[in-house]
Amino acid sequence: MLRRFDVHRVTSIAEAVDARQRFGEDAAIYAGGTELLLAMKMGVARWPHLIDVKAIPALGRITATNDALRIGATATHWDIERNALVGGALPALARLEANVANVRVRAAGTLAGNLAFGEPHADPPSMLIALGARVVLEGKSGTRSVAVHEFITGMYQTALAGDEIIVAIDIPLPAKDVRVAYVKFQILERPSVGVAALGTVRDGRFVGAPTVVVGAVDEVARAVPTAQFAGADARDARTLDAIAEAARAAVEPTADLAGSVEFKRHLVGVFTQRVCATLAAQAS
Amino acid sequence: MKQAHRVVGTPARRADGVAKVTGAARYAVDLSVPGMAYAAVVRSTRAHAKITGIDRTAAAASPGVIRVLIGDDLLAAGLTPYYGHVVLDHPVLAIERVRFHGEPVAVVVAETKREAAEAAELVDVSYEDLPAVIDADEALKPDAPVLHERRGERVGDEGMDEGEKGLVGNVCAIARVGWGNIDEALARAHLVVEGEYRYPMLYGYAMEPYNALAFFDQGDLVVFSTAQHVYMVRRDLARMFHLPLARVRVSAPYVGGGYGTKSYTKVEGMTAAAAFFTGRAVKLDLSVEEAMLTTRSASAHIRARSAFTKDGMLLARDFQIVMNNGAYTDNTPLVNSKTANRCFGPYRIPALRVIARSVFTNTVPSSSLRGFGAPQGNIAGELQMDEAAAKLGLDPVELRLRNLVGPGEEFMPGKRPLDADLKDDLRCLASALEWPGTRIGRSIGLGVSASDAGAYPTSTAAVRIHSDTSVTLFTGSTELGQGSRTVLAQIVAEELGVPLESVGVVNGDTGVVTYERTTGASRTTTITGRAVQEACRDARRRVRELAVQAFDLPTSEIEDTAGGIRARGRGFSYGEVIEKWFGAGGEVLGHGAVRRAEGFAKMPPFYEIGCTGLELSVDRETGQVHVTKLTTVGDVGFAINPALVHGQDAGAAMMGLGAALHEELIYEGGQLVNPNVVDYRVPRFSDIPDEMVHLLAERLDGSGPFGAKGAGEGAGNTVGSATASAIGRLLGIFPRELPATPERVWRLIREAERVRTRKTE
Fold it and tell me: How far is CA B319 from CA B86, B171, B301, B448, B739, in A?
């Protein structure tokens, strides 16, 4: 069962940063709690203090400019999947969010919390990395922004400094003719393999190289080297086979209850093909 | 032909439906008493070890702590520190030694639940590791570490297995079934199908984890618990505290899911001991994670051979079964013998040899779980029918029809003849599934089973008819969600001719209700139902006796009517007779008992039929199975409440599907690696097949009331083998190990490709 802890409800970013500094390693940031409280209930994490950031009004907002979405740190998966701005500008992200875990997790869990936990078996990181999203952090020395692939540094490890909190996630919107897709394979509570891709397909060919990022299978999400596929025939099975081969080579899967290294590497190939086929199909 | 009935045979609304859906229904976990203390369990961190010391100092000094209790305290107080309804080998708290990771070593009692949990972490147990054995086949080897050098006292009274003969090393139970000359039959067979099959170790996930509330009231022990068999728990507790049965009261209010996992004593002993040593009312409620360290079902490794003529007639079947039953005996002798009885199927088999052995290992103790050996046995028995059909070029339905026994035919010598028409059931199932199936990429699998169900048929019931003609039923059978309160009330309403709404049910409290041996083996409708019927008939007899005296009527002129009697052209309600006889107030009490006699003289009391099939597709790239349709045939003799039968069939089939596709407790290095329901994958709503069809077969051929017989487990018994069969028919290679996880299926697909490549080369 949960052990005793103190909850500190902060109402501004400055207060949150202060609390981070005051409690140091004795405190965790608490927003959705879907990962944090589960870990605390199981006794794998113990925090004497939780800094509850849910009541900071600025953090709940989802806003859009012409070329970017800004998702506040306390926006839940449920908020994002149903948000009209997200649905209009980046429907693939809305779909991804609508399929995270289950409705109870989505109703409480936040996108920022998902990134902050650094859980390797997660849906959002691969797509956010593919889109070039950045995590906006605020700490004692001010604000900085870190690319998602640099923010998540390892299994359950991030670049978040001891005095910082996540303020928002900035997601650049792809150009009009760029397609975004995400497919995953999932048996347990979390995805076993998730592959995000974006690219432009014109007249059946990739315009430039597609971006492919494989998540959930490795310690961190991995971008697949795809430069060689610039201009390749997106409808040719050989192209998809070759991208799948590149994806399989790019990952070092972790064996767990969802499968062996060999099976997961195989799945990476299958879902890379599927996601790239989706790009081509969407374009036609 | 069905007789005309008023109340039975109708889908009457569940008596407890609204209370459960709105959260008003009270379960044991909801109960509290003033001044109650809380217990927390300290569990072994070793798979197998000697306990070299337990330092309680820090825990005892922790805030709110009342007492820290260990096994030695029970010994010192002269209590019986072991429980077990067959073998007295399960320590309430570990004594000298731990035999599995997670075994209770100490109990901390404190003023609050959190204080108890916090102090539990301060109990310092020192261990000296012993070699551990996790795998059952390993545990059978001569050099394997032995868990029980000295066996516990045998206290069981059912004698289902061979008793203590041959129980050497780690063998916990042996069962043998057989007849005919196996070797001779194998030698002259046209085809012998041979293989090794594996059925997983499962956790029977119930929404309400194990919990109990215990206190002593003027020397009487009172325990509220989420128990299925309150009378079995009463016996264990009476033995533990040297109390007469009459001074132990065990009460189970609504039970939040049982499935067999709450049969027999679980946490009641620990909780009662905590109450005994503290003089307080003590509550212990486990988390799901702790419940997973309390009871599981036995896995099975089966080596099987089936011999056929070229026309597909069975000549012989040979099964060698090894089951992993964990650290203690619990219900193993019964599960083991049921697996032996249920593996070969309701077929005409000229020669049979089954040897089932259950083996102690350093794992969570196993006990009953829905199906009780039948799903384990069927993965070999039924799947070999399909494998044989494929090899003989015969239709698997036809192959089964050729071998199935008919109604009234004996298939186990000396046992009850089959009380079902399985051939007709199978034809119904095949037709509903559109067998053999023509849709590309889809495949159908199906199977049949007949389980010797009902357990030992001892049951009693009482009805009180009140002065307003309403009725209270007293039954020792517990409401596990299966709907027994509703079904038994329907039987009362039918027998006594009163409205269903005027029947109240009091159940599951040994201090109040009449004796019931168990609530398991799908027995309640059949066996308790018969006791209820007898109680109603006894009450009617008494009403007639009262009428003779009260109205000075000759016995011969009294006829029974709905809700009363009729004599000399006049009707009298029960209430009128009662009030007239007493003068003011009063009631009539009827008692009913059934035993192993008359309709239940021959064991088993009835066969529970399994007749389920499904259609599925396989993603050939990922190995993921998708079930498009699942069909059950509920051969229940007579459905007293058809809606509840459908509910039971759907539930049993879905649990079967969990084991077929996903569920498996996995051990690595002496510890469970998935001891929580995040990593242990139970079925979800998204796993429900696209289409589910539940048929009923009502031939009034059951030994229960109105021709009914039990349901609730059968529909799941063949789901595992049917799933394997459907996958096998699709891929050309049959999976012989469940669950058929995506990776396992993907490996089969690759193997099938290799076989095809070899053939074309």
Answer: 25, 17, 10, 18, 21
